[in-house]
Design goal:
- There is one protein chain.
- A hairpin with a 4-residue loop joins strand 1 and strand 2.
- With 436 residues, the chain is of the alpha+beta class.
Length: 436
């Protein structure tokens, strides 16, 4: 009696130890998969099938995938013990019609299909499940469904060829964990492959976009040159004609010619603006530190400033690191814009900057005609002007905004009609240094 109790106790301890060893094995396999590179996954799957198959004393372990569109199943991975014939090549695109109903029903319900004795399966003809299994010498088998996002995608199986094998409930439960682990590995592989494909598509799109931009820029330069050449000829010929015939022509005849010259100049500004806008992103001069106070002196020398307008520049402006031509374009366009719309006997333009947390805020303030709030957003769009009587291109503020956004800043304005306008823009501090 005592001997029987001791035997049962030892048997129970051995079962517990075996379960713990299997759990340790699954933890080890899981850790390996988590840290594995995608290129090693197939090799690791094969290795883990061998480890688990040997542990549960199976003669063959394998993975199948279901294809419910074509109603077939195919063997994707297989491990065989020594002396056991591989069957993977003959187990491709098997018709599911020959499978016993209980097999598929069990998998669809998330349960294992366990057959302790294949010889007890019902006859199903030459292509039935029993015939397929007996042809492989299988005496016992257990298959565990692989379910991803509530969808049955395949199964993991264990065959016993040499003898009938009985699986315990605990072995079945732990092998379910093994199957779920494989599903997670498959999901990870699919996810990483999708990311890789998306990155490849992104790179292809960026290359195509870069090529298209380059072609557009080259086209803009060619077109601008081809358009500007005849404009120069027209402008020159009309001026020559006016100079030679000014005395003989009255005002009524000169007025149409002056209008032609005005429109030629307007077209010239427009072409230049398009070319400047198309090349903002690819100015070839190198980035460097730019002392804004020194830059303001250079910029103001290039602008025709009327006598009635006074421009003041704040001392100790920041030093910007970047493309000098881009920064000059920003200030030139904003200052010229302020001059253009000055309507006071004493025009005032102020230029300055202040520190605002993670960035610096610049401003160009004038006491001109002001802008109605309806135009606060519109004026930054290409070819948008407040009036159409001037020869300007309507591109200047679009160029300014494009440059500011290039440096990860923003631009906006505050204005009151009849009082004046202040344009603000920001540059992040990492682009800026302050002079001592």
């Amino acid at each position: 009696m005592v001997s029987d109790l001791n035997f049962k106790h030892m048997e129970k301890d051995e079962i517990i130890k075996q379960q713990l060893r299997l759990q340790d094995l699954l933890i080890s396999i899981s850790t390996t998969f988590i840290n594995a590179d995608l290129s090693d996954i197939d090799e690791l799957v094969q290795k883990s099938l061998k480890q688990v198959g040997e542990f549960v004393k199976a003669d063959r372990s394998y993975i199948f995938s279901y294809d419910f569109i074509n109603y077939t199943t195919s063997n994707t991975f297989e491990w065989c013990a020594e002396g056991i014939q591989p069957e993977i090549d003959s187990l491709q695109h098997l018709n599911l019609d020959g499978f016993v109903t209980q097999w598929l029903d069990a998998h669809k319900n998330g349960k294992a299909f366990y057959c302790e004795d294949v010889s007890l399966l019902p006859e199903g003809g030459e292509f039935g499940l029993r015939a397929i299994l007996e042809a492989q010498g299988i005496q016992s088998l257990m298959t565990i469904p692989k379910i991803k996002n509530n969808e049955l995608i395949g199964f993991i199986g264990f065959d016993s060829v040499k003898k009938i094998h009985k699986y315990t409930k605990n072995e079945k439960d732990i092998l379910f964990v093994f199957a779920n682990m494989f599903v997670n590995v498959i999901q990870r592989k699919e996810h990483e492959e999708r990311i890789k494909q998306q990155e490849q598509k992104k790179e292809e799109l960026l290359r195509d976009l870069s090529l298209q931009n380059e072609e557009l820029n080259e086209y803009a330069q060619v077109v601008s040159h081809d358009l500007k050449a005849p404009l120069v000829n027209i402008h020159t010929l009309i001026n020559w004609f006016i100079d030679d015939n000014k005395e003989a022509m009255g005002e009524s005849l000169l007025a149409p010619l002056d209008q032609v010259l005005f429109n030629v100049e307007k077209m010239d500004f427009l072409i230049k603006g398009i070319l400047d806008y198309s090349t903002v992103d690819r100015l070839e001069s190198k980035d460097r530190e730019n002392d804004l106070n020194a830059m303001m002196e250079e910029v103001l020398k290039t602008i025709l400033i009327p006598f009635h307008i006074k421009i003041t520049v704040q001392e100790n402006l920041p030093v910007l690191f970047g493309n000098a031509l881009k920064f000059k374009q920003v200030f030139q366009n904003l200052i010229q814009n302020a001059i253009k719309y000055s309507d006071k006997e004493e025009g005032v333009i102020e230029i300055g900057a202040s520190e605002k947390g993670e960035y610096f805020e610049f401003f160009i303030k004038d006491n001109g005609i002001g802008i109605h709030s309806d135009y606060f957003e519109k004026i930054f769009k290409v070819f948008t002007k407040l009036e159409s009587i001037s020869s300007s291109s309507g591109i200047g503020l679009s160029i300014v905004k494009k440059i500011i956004q290039f440096y990860k800043g923003v631009i906006w304005l505050e204005s009151e009609e009849g009082i004046g306008t202040t344009f603000y823009f920001t540059i992040p501090k990492q682009e800026v240094l302050f002079l001592d």
